[in-house]
């Protein structure tokens, strides 16, 4: 005769026996603390910029009136300090508002989990610069690849990279190709990357320039600064090809940049020592256009006075 199956009796834990329902509910809540700003460190190599612009001043005013409504997120470090995962703008607003603490949710995460969380939370911003996307995508993809290596040993490194890229693409909405284009921007010198952020160089030409050695990128930037024009996609491709053949020199860069572009407005290019020696020695290149315009306005007023004197 078969034995009757006995139901296993579940006994309450010690915590359940010696704590009230209210205490147990409180334990389930997020750990929200007021943490001194002096104990909070920014996330290492945080790719998102924090500017003291008009939006920041509006946030500062809101913080003064309402405090921090949405807590920042931090994790405890081994040295006892805290690392900021999300809320860098809120922390800066508290500093400007003169508040000593930041309302924070304290979480437990390892380095790679923290990196993925940091990127995800900051992608909720309304405006994200190309440079911010570039470094954020790179950091998150590297963290995802490391996580994949630890959790799945049956795939090759290339398979893991492709799987991570596909997941990231689904999460952020950019195609895998577009993600890797943005990541290429991290190979640009800061001056060229800033021009991409400002909208002066498009993404595709910038990607081509990123394959050129950095010392030659500096020559390209100097030429852009002097000629006040930027390369098209086809010109950037030619520069990249010439660089691989060791044929891209400052002279060849200038020759390419001075080519007439489609829909390009007529422009005047000053060349040679005759013009260069007329500028003050300490005048930066970026101010030369203003100097020329002021000189021409002054000369036009002189011609007008001269014409009036001749009519008298």
TrEMBL record:
GO BP term, pick one: chromosome segregation
Domain ParB-like N-terminal: from-to ranges: 33-123
Gene Ontology cellular component terms for the protein in this record: chromosome
One term of GO molecular function: DNA binding
CDD domains, per the entry: ParB_N_like
Pfam families: ParB_N (PF02195)
The family this protein is said to belong to: Belongs to the ParB family.
Name of the molecule in the record: ParB/RepB/Spo0J family partition protein
Organism per entry: Hornefia butyriciproducens
